[in-house]
Structure formats: structure tokens, C-alpha cells
Amino acid sequence: MKIFLLALLSLGAILLNFEKVLASAILLIFLFLYIFNKKEIKVKETVLFVLVFLAFFIRSHISINNHMSNLQNTQEREVILTLTNPIIINGDYLKTRANLDGEDVQLAYSLNNREEKEFFEKKFYGGQIKALVEIKDIAEKKNFYSFDYKDYQNKHYVYKQVIIKDIKETSSKVNGIFNNINLLRSKAIQNINNNLLLDKAGYVQALIYGDKSNLEENDKEIYANIGISHLLAISGLHVAALLSIIYFILGKFNIEKNIKDRIILIILPIYAILAGFSPSVIRAVAMIAVYIIFKKLILASLDALFLVFLLMLFLNPYYVYDIGFQFSFFISFSLLMSGEYIKKSLSKLEQAFKVSLIAGISSLPITVYYFNNFSFISILSNLIFVPYFTMIIFPIVIVSYSVFLVSVDLFNVFFKPILNLVFYINDKVLDIFNFLPNKWIIAKVSPYYIYLVLLVVILTLVYLNKEDYRKFTLGIIFLSLILFIANYSVQYNQYLYELKLNGKSVYYLRNKSKTILINTSNNYPDFKNDFRKKTKDYDIINQYKNLMDFEGIRKFNYLILTKVSPLEIGKATWLLSQGKADQVLILENIVKHKNIEEVIQVANLNNIKVSIIKDNKFYELGEVRIYNGVDRVVLKFRDKEYIINEEKSKK
To answer: What's the predicted TM-score (pTM) here?
Structure first.
């Protein structure tokens, strides 16, 4: 209990500098628990609490004051960049994270020719680059629903984007052990890209090195839909499986236990760097290290977890905002707190179900807050995929990759067919789960709803551990009710946003429960057939998915088309073919255009009503009025007029 109080106090102290309301709630809980357990807490322990509070408060305050870039924006400067992270190339566009003057930056470069592209793909896996560059701030997010990439990078101590204009020199050498291990990781990832001829090579990269850049976007979406994304990120499951393999191998050589532990303590930090040094990996590796170092003290699992929690937050207070950190610690905490309940299981299947249930419930507040949905099928999907990944896919990937490093031919003959088979089975089961109703979309709501959800989740898990299934069921019902009310509350919102999608203006209007999309934009056509041809095309469809998730809707009530160019309305046919609009409204003067006729045809095929907005007339949608003028379209909403487009196409 005392180390738990320390962890709670440290969290409250840090959040006082970031989120005062949440920090106050956490500190009130601490005070309640402190008073409740006052008889067991000695004076020197009270002094320790005060010192810990001050230490973490001051540490986070210092971190905030140092949370800024020392680099100045400039149009042109000659610099030396250090590259130790994997280089991602798509067409003629290169990007990675680099280090400049001791500060991490986002690096971008437009490749000039095929030879330069081949150099960075096959010969240069990291090192130093002397170059002429432009330095600027990372761009702000463009649309209200978009992921705030700038804020995300800033919280990971990355503030600037560096664009290479001209490369002067390159070198494959870097300084420092950490950089050289990272360089080894980049080289290994590049080796997989170039030489591992397997459709699922992206999984090997993700499961061995924690690099998900080569996973198919569709695969990642399916994993997210059914609540098993964590299997694609290296976590405690993967570290434990790897540790079992290492202990098994060392056991074959009759090595003493103490020697085994020392070998593990050497391997663990190296593996953490090779695996991407993410918070979930650090947590898993650090807990194992703490077990080994303090094994004579018989440290409880929860105490080890809280100790690692304290160490990580003190080293980097901004971990508190890291999604992986939040998932890793809260789910681990929930499972360890439920240890006795899980042990009462009468079978392995019941035990697996309890673990999946607890993990699913505990992940709910984080998933809803960040991803605007909750996969209610995750309890069942984890029950199937967790053992399949940990007992079949991950061990086979480890062994297969080890063979690949020794002999590519041996890998191709024996292990490539095995990997193809296990992933084929995996894909077929994935398709079944993805076909089923699998997630509840929940609109972006106030953090206060999430705090309430978090509180109810904790109480629900407490009742589950006490095997009070009546109160547990009431907790689940209450959770559903909170989320329903939160989702319903956005139906009172009224606003109009101009969205920027691929440089084109698209308008989104919400009038309480009614949603209107005006025009759609489109993907940029890629006509290049040389080295500039992209292997991964950005699909604007993701923008609509993100918008609908943010708004808690599955489709728009109205799609209004005021233009005819494919670059302005190109995705209208996709939206209609997927049933993402109830009704289409089209200006009378463009209704005969061939692009619009195609839209109407798709709408008719999908039984979607098509209405015409007459020239020089108003069309009313409740409180929203649309005027189709001679040279402009005007939208009237909440006593304001908005010009949607001028000089309309009359072709």
C-alpha cells in the first residue's frame, strides 16, 4: 500500500503542472487513503511522502521549463545531422528522425534521382550527413478532428522539422554505445526490407524491432477494430516470450542460475534499444531487471510495477502523456490487482477469459479518449489471438528470423512456407472478426466524461475481484450509460468548419443531430512511373473515417455537391457506394455534367435520395438554408452567411 501511495502521490505532483483538475482528484484520493491507513504509516514515512511530492513536482516543473527547442528557424544553414533511426522512403520522399546539435528533429528530403534512392535504400542505413538545410516548426494540425502531430512530437521532445536542400557529405560512423546499437537496429530493419522476401515481412519488423512502418494500413485498421493492436507493439507479452526462449537455450548448457541472471541483465537493456525503447518495452524490461536485482527481498509484483512507474516518471515526466505508457501500466496494474481472482480459475480457458475481460475493461477509458471508439469484441478476440501470437506466431518469427540471419536459402526453403501458413490462418480468422460488428464509435467528449469512466472502471474491477457479479453487472451497465450520454451530448453541438483536404476546401456542418458535408476533395493522382512512384499512396478516405469517429457518426445526413472537378468531389462516389450519406443535394446548373451524372448513378444504385438545389432559390434543411446564386453558393446558418464557392462551374 505504501509504495502504491508513493506512485499515486508522484502522479498527482507531476499532473499539478499539467492538468490541475485531474491532479487535485488524484491528490484527494491520496489524502483519503493516507488518513484511512494513518495508523500503519510512521512519521519517517510521512516525511518520505512530502519529499517525494516535492521531488516530482520540482522535476516536472524543470522539465516544462526545459521543454523547448534551442534551434532557430532558418531558410538555409549548413549542419551535421546524426541518423540512427530507420529511414522511410516512399517514392522520392525520405523521412526519419535525426539528431541536430543534441536535439531530435523530424528530417525530410526529396531524392533527386534513382541512384540516390538506391543509396539510401541499400547502402546507407544511418550515420552522419553534412547538408544544407531549412529548419522550421512542425506544422500545426489542419482540421479540428485531426491527430495533433505537433503536440505529439513536442511531448516526445521533438520541436523542429529539418528539410535537406543539398547533401554535402555522408558518413556511416556515429559516436556512443546507444547510437551504435540504434544504428545496428536500423541496419537490421533495412536488411529485412531488402532481403526478406515475405509478404508479411512487416510483421517480422514489428515483432522483432518494434518498427511498424511496413505494416499494411488495412491490417493495422483491422487489428484496431477488433481490439488487438497491442499484439503489433512489443510489450510484456513479447518480452516474456523472448525471455522464456533465452532461459530455455541457456538451460541446455547447464549454466548456473546466477550466471543466467547476469546474462539476462546484459541482454535486457540492449534488447530494449533494439526493440525501439518504447515505454511498454522499458516497463517490461525494467520490471524483469527489478525482479532479478531485488529477488532476495521477495519484491511483490505490484511493488515492482510501482517502483518502475516511479523511476520512469522521474526520468521523463512527459511519459504521463504517452499512450503506450498509460496502456502498459494501467492494464498491468489491473491484472496484478486481480491476481487472486484470476488464480481461482478452474481451467486455462477460464483463466484466459478473465485476463482478457480485465484487460478489455481496463483499456476502455484510454481507448475511448484517444481513438473515439471501443471494441466490444476485444474480449473474445484477445482470447483467441493472444495465445496464437505468443505461443505460435512470435516464437516462429523469432526462430525464423534467427535462421534468416544465418542463411537466407535455409529460411526460404524451410521457414518461409511455415510463416506463410501461420499468417494465412491468422488472416482468415481476422477476416471473420472484422466481418462481425466489432466496435462502438463514441464522439470526442469532454475529459470529465473520461475521468468518470475511469472511476467507474476501477469500481467495476473491484466488484469483479470480490466476485460480486450483481454490482459488476451494474457497473458495466453504468459504463454503457455514461458513454451513451457522452455520445448523445454532442448532438447539441452547432458549428461549421472549413476543412483542408489535399489543399481543397471541404465544409463540414453540424446542426445538432444533423450533419452536412459539402464537396469531398480527392486523392492526388500519381502519374509518375520512375523512381518517384510511391509504394504507399495516401488515401483521403482516412480523413472521413477520422472525422466520423471524432463526431461519433457512421454516415453524413447530407452530401452537398457544388463543384464538378474530380479534385473537388472525387470521393463522392466512394462515400455513396459505402452508404456514408443519407441524401445527396446537387446544384441545378451542374446536374448534367458527366462527373455529376456518375455520382447520381452511384446514388441510385445504392437507393440514396438525390435532390436538386434550384438556380436562384433557397433550399432549406431545418435551420440551415442554402442559396444557389448566379455566381456563388451561400450557406446561411445561425444568423450568419458563408460563401461556399464563387464563380461556380457551369460546364
So the answer is: 0.88
